[in-house]
Amino acid sequence: MKTLIVGPEPSQALHVRQVPDSALLTGGRPLFLRDEVDKVELTVMPAVRVSRLGLCVSLRFAPRYYDALTLVALNCDREWSEESLVADNALVVGQWLPVPQGPAAVASPDGAVAEWPDLRPAFDEAVSAVSRRSTLKTGDIIVLAQPCGRYEARLGSRPCWSLDGSPALGFKIR
Q1: Is the pLDDT of residue 23 over 60?
Q2: Is the domain covering 3-170 a CATH 3.90.850.10 domain?
Q3: What's this model's pTM, rounded to 2 decimal places?
Q4: Where in the chain are the domains?
């Protein structure tokens, strides 16, 4: 299984970054902060789970290659720094939900609700682009580098995000 963050670079070319397995935090485990910090800045992004093996997937067939959507939180103080992507427990993965068939509402821990556009075309393009570079395998995670918000969390808090009313991402910060 691999986790890839896919997004445009300033030159508008699609760029793929692989995240090591040690950077994933799954299963509702708490996010532990370093001793010298009492807060963390989280960047929340959408992600899909690959559901079948594929190589050189055409854009037309890309929707067949993912079956679930979640939110992920990147634990970073600097946007898209390479150091933040390789740190242990840097990427918190939420609960897997069915992919919405249109726009989706995302509720953040502070109560704000944001309306997302239909993300399926962006995921289709990401799946197709990644499959041209490497083989997609069941269980791979593709994260869109399209932040849906930044959130500052403090030690002892429990931030939770929901997607269309269903809990998508929640964890305790210790």
Answers
A1: yes
A2: yes
A3: 0.90
A4: 3-170
